[in-house]
Design a protein that fits this description.
Number of domains: 3
Helix content: 40-55%
Strand order of the largest sheet: 1-2-3-6-7-4-5
Structural class: alpha/beta
Radius of gyration: 35 Å
CATH superfamily of the largest domain: Calcium-transporting ATPase, transmembrane domain
Number of helices: 19
CATH architecture of the largest domain: Up-down Bundle
Distance between the termini: 61 Å
CATH topology of the largest domain: Calcium-transporting ATPase, transmembrane domain
CATH class of the largest domain: Mainly Alpha
Strand content: 5-15%
Length: 474
């Protein structure tokens, strides 16, 4: 056989036309040491066939049998192979290679079928995307038959497959309609990619685009999220992108989506915890002042509650893991903010529960004949333990009994134990008692605190259950 080094020595390269997506071929000019010169061309077969007028056979040169080659191209493409044509021609002595030299009077030598099967993780990731309400579209320069075969392996819809030439015939309105129905685009150029991105955005979609070439830069820049390939991507593609995929693996994008949804969920959980508990704290002071009542909790005690819960309970929610079903729900609407109707409803509902609990236990203690300091100690503990129990409500937007860790993981319990220890110090540590004018609680008072706080947990869980039943599956 021939070795590359031997061929390069016998036929060194004089000039080259690099591959361009618009022309879809690469050509090189070679010469031997006897004064012979040849142009070698490789590229898309449908692009090279019009440039050829003869074919090289075992019997020598013959006129090009176009139907035979078209049938061979289609047969290879239907098997999911990427098809490349090889052609050449002898030329007089020259040192430079032009496009006109490579685009006429070629001799077709062979077709090459290249297998590039989708990776198993890519197929699984596309299925996961579809479950998560994410449309995956394949835009390729391959033959339509090859694109269709690969798309079937990936699990994409193949009822419609458009080529770049067909896209050129669509006006903007028609394109906006078709991009919602079609997942596979073949024989496309970078300009087609840009049009597809713009059409999807006009339909109100959030578009993430992957690319690696210089010509992909406009589409990457136009997309809401441009993702460049880190291994084989060009510097131009990376500069135009928002993200660089360091391993060139589609599964990494899906993992990033899952992590992004988890982070967003944890932010919402933190808001659902902080806003209602803050409202309860503020309401206790505000209502008492407005109605001229004795303050159930002093400003110093409120500061204590804020100090021990803000750095522990709220922080624990940031360590929550991905919830089951995260990648089975549709993406949230583009215009949806963090403060939704559900958040506002929970804010008022839980804030009111906390206020009622604190006022109720405060005045229950006063009616028993306890001192104001004793009643305030009861109220402070009710507020703290109400926040502890409500923390478990916030761990999931579904009822806790449907959660895989209904009692929480280590971060939650570390936070809870820390708050309980600090609160016991508030009640019983001599120096701290003097600062906050707190008193110890007896068994009955502790049962009121724990029972009332636990009741809040039960009520909120029932509200979550009723809401999830109204919303239905997913």
């Amino acid at each position: 056989g021939l070795s590359p080094q031997q061929v390069q020595q016998q036929w060194p390269r004089s000039d080259m036309l690099p591959f361009e997506s618009e022309r879809r071929y690469m050509a090189t000019l070679h010469h031997d040491h006897q004064g012979n010169h040849e142009i070698l061309v490789k590229g898309g077969p449908d692009r090279l066939l019009p440039f050829c007028h003869q074919q090289h056979t075992a019997d020598g040169l013959q006129p090009l049998d176009t139907p035979f080659w078209n049938q061979a191209i289609e047969s290879l493409a239907k098997d999911g192979l990427r098809v490349m044509a090889l052609a050449y021609k002898a030329v007089p002595q020259q040192s430079e290679l032009g496009y006109t030299d490579a685009e006429q009077n070629l001799i077709l030598l062979a077709l090459v079928g290249i297998t590039d099967p989708p990776r198993a993780e890519a197929i699984a990731s596309i299925t996961q995307c579809q479950s998560a309400g994410i449309q995956v579209k394949m835009i390729t320069g391959d033959n339509p038959h090859t694109a269709t075969a690969i798309a079937r392996q990936l699990g994409l819809r193949t009822t419609r497959v458009y080529t770049g030439a067909e896209l050129d015939g669509f006006d903007q309105k028609r394109l906006q309609t078709e991009v919602q129905q079609c997942d596979v685009y073949a024989r496309t150029s970078p300009a087609h990619k840009l049009r597809i991105v713009e059409a999807l955005q006009h339909n109100g979609e959030v578009v993430a685009m992957t690319g690696d070439g210089v010509n992909d830069a406009p589409a990457l820049q136009k997309a809401d999220i441009g993702i460049a390939m880190g291994c084989k991507g060009t510097d131009a593609a990376k500069d135009a992108s928002d993200l660089v995929l360091t391993d060139d693996n589609f599964a990494t994008i899906v993992t990033a989506v899952q992590q992004g949804r988890t982070v967003y969920d944890n932010i919402v959980k933190a808001i659902l915890f902080i806003l209602p508990t803050s409202l309860a704290e503020a309401s206790v002071i505000s209502i008492a002042i407005l109605l001229g009542l004795v303050l159930p909790i002093t400003p110093a005690q409120i500061l204590w509650v804020n100090m021990i819960t803000a750095i522990t309970l709220a922080l624990a929610l940031s360590f929550e893991t991905t919830e089951p079903g995260t990648m089975q729900r549709a993406p949230r609407p583009r215009q949806q903010g963090l403060i939704t109707a559900h958040v506002l409803q929970r804010l008022l509902f839980v804030g009111a529960l906390g206020s009622v609990l604190v006022f109720g236990l405060f005045y229950l203690s006063l009616q028993r004949g306890d001192s104001v300091e004793q009643a305030r100690t009861l109220a402070v503990n009710a507020l703290v333990f109400y926040e502890i129990f409500y923390l478990f409500n916030c761990r999931s937007q579904q009822p806790l009994w449907q959660h895989r860790q209904p009692v929480g993981g280590p971060p939650v319990w570390i936070a809870v134990v820390a708050v309980v220890c600090l609160q016991l110090m508030f009640n019983y540590l001599p120096g701290l008692k003097d600062v906050f004018q707190s008193q110890g609680l007896d068994t009955r008072e502790w049962s009121w605190v724990l029972g009332g706080s636990a009741l809040v947990l039960v009520i909120v869980e029932l509200e979550k259950w009723l809401r999830s039943n109204r919303a239905g599956p997913g």
